Amino acid sequence: MQLLIPFIIVTQTSPPSFHGSIREMIFHSGPMAKVVLLILLFFSVLSWAIIIDKFRAFRKIERENHDFLQLFRSKIGALDQIYQQTRRFYASPLAQLFRAGYRQILAEKEKKKQMESEYPDSRSTNNVPTEGEKERLLVVLDQASRSEVDFLERFLTFLATAGSVSPFIGLFGTVWGIMNSFRGLGIYGSASIGVVAPGISEALIATAAGLAAAIPAVMAYNYFLRRLQSAAAAMEDFSREFLGRVIP
């Protein structure tokens, strides 16, 4: 019985066996490492969902912007016909700018008709818009442009956050794992590679997972930011073209 006690103590304090595959290392990792990996998995999955959705959205926007510009430039002087067909271009920011501007023009005409009906002496045959009408139309176009930019910016902040935070979350998991490895050195009283290697390898998985979540998010954020700037420039150019067409 006395010989069994030392044997039991040794077997309870012996270092864990090394598991070579990544799946086994993740499965046998500690609770904190698993929490870190779950957080990074959440960031990665959601980032890829946003990337796929934004890529499809910007591709559709460019296609519909091109088709709408062809329609806008082909129907000279037929703003009402263009307005009736803008519903086909629901994803085009340029079409939404046109709809907002056209509704403002109709509102100004309705206001002018009411003014002329109430004050017949103010009736004028001059159809040139006044400076006030020009300013109000420009304000409406600017508001519509900002609204479209805000819509296109949705979820891009999450990509920036995931790209900047994920490496630090992974580093936290790595530091925590290395702390446990050195704690194991103190418990086992051995500095052999067999004691240190399993803990360090499991810890470094967190850093790799953090980089795997951050790199696509950062690259996608920079890519979509350039696409957003291009879309905003296209809206600004269209606003000038629209104003030049409706205001002589």
Automatic annotation (TrEMBL):
Keywords: Cell membrane, Membrane, Protein transport, Transmembrane, Transmembrane helix, Transport
Family membership: Belongs to the exbB/tolQ family.
Keyword Transmembrane: yes
Transmembrane segments: 30-51, 155-179, 199-225
Protein name stated in the entry: MotA/TolQ/ExbB proton channel family protein
Membrane-topology annotation of the record: Multi-pass membrane protein
Organism: candidate division CSSED10-310 bacterium
Domain MotA/TolQ/ExbB proton channel: 128-236
Chloroplast keyword on record: no
Location in the cell: Cell membrane; Membrane
